[in-house]
Amino acid sequence: MYQKILITTDGSAISQHTACAGVKFAHQMGAEVLALFVAPEYQYPVYVEIIPPSYPSEEEYVAQMRRMGEEYMGSIMRAADKCGLKHSCMTAFSDSAALKIVDIAEEQHCDLIFMGSHGRSGWGQLLLGSVTNKVLSQTAKPVLVHRLIKEPGT
């Protein structure tokens, strides 16, 4: 049914549990896995004439985000490898994670986007916004939303 599944992660415990569920789902489908971490774009300090020496350069920031992305996606890659699935990972940069997820799914010809929901509702969802809701509203591709019944570690 699905040939290539995009699994997103932000590095949080909830996201890691969702990613593991995504790999299990891909295994059931016999699908390839593409893991994605979207990092915010580099921001220059505002209202500062001279960049402080402790502030990372753009190259340092990009390298650090790529390392973090590899760390976050490592468990996905190990799980996919253990299941014998074809897999790859990608770190992308955007201040709009939802739009970047949709763009990557299109560019990489993914059949399904597998992502989690933190389960916020009411004002929490309205005030904070939801990457998952934004993805759902921006793509015509199927999106499988995985929701945890309880927080990891409880």
UniProtKB/TrEMBL annotation:
Residues 1-145 form the UspA domain. It comes from the Bacteria. Coiled coil: none annotated. Belongs to the universal stress protein A family. This is Universal stress protein. It comes from Massilia horti.
